Amino acid sequence: NAGVTQTPKFQVLKTGQSMTLQCAQDMNHEYMSWYRQDPGMGLRLIHYSVGAGITDQGEVPNGYNVSRSTTEDFPLRLLSAAPSQTSVYFCASSPGTGVRTEAFFGQGTRLTVV
Amino acid sequence: GENVEQHPSTLSVQEGDSAVIKCTYSDSASNYFPWYKQELGKRPQLIIDIRSNVGEKKDQRIAVTLNKTAKHFSLHITETQPEDSAVYFCAASAGDYKLSFGAGTTVTVRA
C-alpha cells in the first residue's frame, strides 16, 4: 500500500512552459485535492475532487487545471508557468464516506519557475 | 469562505516545557478541526483531530481543545522533546471535504 504518490519530486520550468504534476493513490479514496505551500502562508487549496468525473475550484485555482478520470489519479496541469507558481505542491486524499477523516498527503513536488 | 488564523508563527521552548498553539476560525459551520505536523522537507501528517461535538481530546503528550462559542481551538504539547521540533498547522472544515489551513507555527525545542 503506497498511499499517495506524487511525481516528480523536483522540477524546474521556464516561464511559459506547461507541465503536469502526477498524483496517484491506492487507498480507494473518493476525495482528492491539490495544495500549494508557500512560506508563511500555510497550505492553500488549488482544486479538489469528490469523485471520478467531478472537480471544483479551491482558493487559488488560476493558472491550473485538473481532471479526475479515475478514482486513483488526479493530475494537476500548469498551463503556462509563471514565476508566481514557484512553490511546493502537495496532493492529498481522504475517504469520501461523509465522515470527516484524515487527509493523507503525498511527498510533495518542489517546483521552480525561472 | 473559511478563514483560519494561527498564532504564534514561531515558538521556542525549553525541552520538558509545554507548548501551546492557538487558532481561530470564521465559519460557524466548521465541524472538523485537525492538526498536522510537518518536519523539514517532509509531508504534513495528522497528529490529532477533534470534531465539533467534543470539547477536548488527548493523545499521550498532545491535546486539543475546542471552544465553539468563541470559535477557537488550541493544541497543547506537554513535556516537549527535541523530536517535537517541526511546523504545526491547524485546519478547519465545514463538512464539504475542503480543509482551510492556518499559516503554521514553527516550534523549536531547545535541549
Q: Can you give keywords for this protein?
A:
heterodimer, A: 114 residues, mainly beta, seven-stranded mixed sheet, four-stranded antiparallel sheet, 0% helix, 49% strand, globular, B: 111 residues, six-stranded mixed sheet, five-stranded antiparallel sheet, 11 strands, 55% strand
Describe what this molecule looks like in 3D.
The complex is a heterodimer of chains A (114) and B (111). Chain A is an all-beta fold. Helices cover 0% and strands 49% of the residues of chain A. In chain A, the strands form two sheets. In chain A, strands 2, 4, 5, 6, 9, 10 and 11 form a seven-stranded mixed β-sheet that branches. In chain A, strands 1-3-8-7 form a four-stranded antiparallel β-sheet, with no helix packed on it. The termini of chain A are far apart. The model of chain A has no long low-confidence stretch (mean pLDDT 93). Chain B is mostly beta strands. Chain B has no helices and eleven strands. Chain B has strands at residues 4-7, 10-14, 19-25, 32-38, 45-51, 56-59, 62-67, 72-77, 86-92, 100-101, 105-110. In chain B, the strands form two sheets. In chain B, strands 2, 4, 5, 9, 10 and 11 form a six-stranded mixed β-sheet that branches. In chain B, strands 1-3-8-7-6 form a five-stranded antiparallel β-sheet, with no helix packed on it. The radius of gyration of chain B is 13 Å and the shape is globular. Chain B starts with a strand and ends with a strand. The A-B interface holds A 31, 33, 35, 40-45, 48, 50, 58-59, 90, 94, 96, 100, 102-103, 105-108 and B 1, 4, 6, 9, 31-32, 34, 42-46, 49, 51, 89, 91, 93, 95, 97-104.
Q: How much of the polypeptide of chain A forms β-strand, as a percent range?
A: over 45%
Order of helices and strands of chain B: EEEEEEEEEEE
Tally of alpha and pi helices of chain B: 0
The count of strands of chain B amounts to 11
* Shape estimate of chain B: globular
Structural class of chain B: mainly beta
Largest sheet of chain A: 7 strands, mixed
Chain-averaged pLDDT of chain A: 93
Order of helices and strands of chain A: EEEEEEEEEEE
How much of the polypeptide of chain B forms β-strand, as a percent range?
over 45%
Query: Low-confidence parts of chain B lasting 5 or more residues at pLDDT below 50?
Result: none
First CA to last CA of chain A: what distance?
36 Å
- Residues in helices of chain B, as a percent range: under 10%
Biggest chain contact: A-B, 23 and 26 residues
- Radius of gyration of chain B, CA atoms, in whole angstroms: 13 Å
The coarse overall form of chain A would be globular
